[in-house]
Amino acid sequence: MEFVLKHEALAHLREVALFPNTLNPHEAESLALVGAMVDQVLELHPGARWLHIGCDEVYYLGEGEASRQWLQQEQNTTATLCLSHMRAVASHVRARHPATTPLVWDDMLRDIPEDQLSASGVPQLVEPVLWDYGADLDVQGKALLMEKYRQCGFPRLWAASAFKGATGPSQALPPVEHHLRNNLQWLQVAAQGRKDTLQGIILTGWQRYDHFSVLCELLPVGIPSLAVCLQSLLHGGFTEDVRARVQHLLGISSLEIAGVLSEGTGSFPGSDILALVVQVSLHLRSSVDEMLQTDRYVTGWFSPYHRRRKLIHPVMIQHIQPQALSLLGRWSGLAQELAAALHRVFPEDTVEEWLQENVHPSLGQLQALLQDLEAASPPPPPAGPGPGPDAGQGP
């Protein structure tokens, strides 16, 4: 809810005044706000069979002043509060959009006792989505959780895996093997449950961890991981035939699961962005760091101490400056190429943010080094006296 509750006009609807991530469920205006959001989304998607209404990781629920007072009453708990709000939102969806089934994340439901869940009325309104993005999820534990939900009266369940995101808020390249293992383990969970219970596996593709975090893997960069995971789910595993199919679909000659995809390969839309992001992610920072931290001329004759005092042996300029200019030229050219490719897909602010986070810091270090070299360079020697007016004439 940060993208809404961050605004001053709606800050009064926060559960805790300082934090914009959780809605105050006691305010009638809160339900009206969510109802308006639901209606706007479904107006744009009139044929939607499902609508995911969220409800996961509701941090600080119960810590607002209204909630504290409400929780002092006998039999009121944070779980009751959560279920009540979930029921209200789902009821709005069902009443206004009867052809649409609400989905909810399941983590706020996991620890609620079965009898409380059964009596809440929520199982008749929503279909839970069990999420776990780990490469080593507890298959047996998930199967038991599915059975618990079924016993509570939820007729249908979903699972959620990931093909990008979930492995680091600033991750630039998705670890394909991690996501493949995650999806294959969800297939194991599905095999242990009743056939009519699990409706499907939702492959999530994160763009941010929350509204205030940085961008993680861009969609074009995540397409190979998506292809691997989706084809593996469709065919029940990652066989050599599936590998060959993915390679053909993506136009990749050799699909590497354990490491990073081969640089400069692929013919799928966005493959040019992937190739350039691989270059930046694997080599830009390391090449600049190598020059600044291990080059003997920089570390020995133009250290931070020297740079602050604008001191350098003139000979050393000849060793450092050409290399720095060459490195800056190489990466500046690649950055321009990447910016042009990103602009074909993303809006200006997305391109600007990604470049500022992932490219500009290293380029800025090189530019600062060259500026410091310029400032420390000794002035050229003064010109000697020129020939006199009688130079070249005989006596």
Gist of the model:
With 395 residues, the protein is of the alpha/beta class.
What does this structure look like?
- By secondary structure, this protein is an alpha/beta fold.
- It folds into two domains: 2-229, TIM Barrel (Alpha-Beta Barrel); 274-376.
- The protein contains 15 helices and five strands.
- The chain has helices at 2-5, 28-44, 65-71, 78-96, 114-119, 139-152, 176-192, 219-235, 240-250, 271-294, 296-301, 304-309, 314-343, 348-358, 360-376, and strands at 50-52, 101-105, 127-131, 157-164, 198-205.
- A five-stranded parallel sheet has the order 1-2-3-4-5.
- The chain starts with a helix and ends in a 19-residue tail after the last helix.
Which architecture name of the largest domain does CATH use? Alpha-Beta Barrel
Mean pLDDT: 94
- The level of helicity is 40-55%
Largest sheet data: 5 strands, parallel
Low-confidence stretches: none
Distance between the termini: 96 Å
Order of helices and strands: HHEHHEHEHEHEHHHHHHHH
Reported by name, the CATH topology of the largest domain is TIM Barrel
Number of domains: 2
